[in-house]
Amino acid sequence: MSNRVCVQDFFDKNTNTFSYVVADPDTRKCAIIDSVLDYDAASASIHTTHADQIIDFIQKNSLSVEWILETHVHADHLTASQYLQAKLGGKIAMSHNIGVVQETFCAIYNFDMNYFNSHQSFDYLFADHEHFKIGKLEAYNIPTPGHTPACLSYVIGDDAVFVGDTLFMPDYGTARCDFPKGSAASLFDSVQKLYDLPADMRVFLCHDYLPEGRHDYICESSIEIQKKQNIHIHEGTIKADFVEMRNQRDAALSMPKLILPAIQINMDAGKFPEPEQNGIRYLKIPLNIFKH
């Protein structure tokens, strides 16, 4: 049984987000990870340019979608999961801890939590460390909370892990932890789980931000390189020092531009509110919740 992983990346420069198609070459089955729906905040309009690139790639390569995976509830972009599922099929899935995020943000948006308790928009919720397959490819998740309480990393095959918002490129460090129920201490522990993976395992990142002196966006690193070179958390980094650094750094960051429209959509598996009587859908924006 082959465990070789074929990975194609797609980059959205507007949100610095990498999406992926991960395929089993034997069965032509694939998974889509962390898709992006284009959203123009000024006009509150959505477009499918980046999602259509994924669809085009999948169709041209005669792939069949089994999974549409989310590493977490993204705060910096809207997921294209519903659009992709309508076009390609597949199960939309993420961590069972999504309930924590839904409850937290229902209080912020004044949504009725009974809506989420009575039905679940995600097709599948992974238990911690659950194993699954993409075609013949063996895969499992590692719970990696810190950025949010519902973050997962996906280990696929023998040589690839998709880490969401935990690690960035070594020259940029780690993800922020100041969102509700985020935790720098938890992120430190999560990264240690990743660092226990084989040194040569490829690490696929959800974002890349260009630090001074680098001009090319990069989606891939390795466990060995991260452990040796990550500027925030490398071999020998003391937990208390990391937590202090991360908390101080987060206190100076601005909130993501799309957090308020994105969270309410993404925590409902990419579903938009139902149209009102005039046929228009409306998003809800709480005032003065995040002050930076």
Précis, in short:
This protein is 27% helix and 22% strand. By secondary structure, the chain is α/β, with parallel strands linked by helices.
- Uncertain spans: none
What is the helical fraction, as a range of percent? 25-40%
Report the count of strand segments. 14
Q: Tell me about the biggest sheet? A: 6 strands, mixed
* Number of helices, where a helix is a run of at least 4 consecutive DSSP H or I residues: 8
Explain the layout of strands and helices.
Layout: E1 6-12, E2 17-23, E3 29-33, E4 38-40, E5 45-47, H1 49-60, E6 64-69, H2 81-88, E7 91-95, H3 98-109, H4 113-118, E8 124-126, E9 131-134, E10 137-143, E11 152-156, E12 160-162, H5 184-195, E13 202-204, E14 220-222, H6 223-229, H7 239-251, H8 259-266
Parallel strand pairs: 3-6, 6-7, 7-8, 12-13
Antiparallel strand pairs: 1-2, 2-3, 4-5, 9-10, 10-11, 11-12, 13-14
Comma- or semicolon-separated keywords:
292 residues; alpha/beta; six-stranded mixed beta sheet; 8 helices; 22% strand
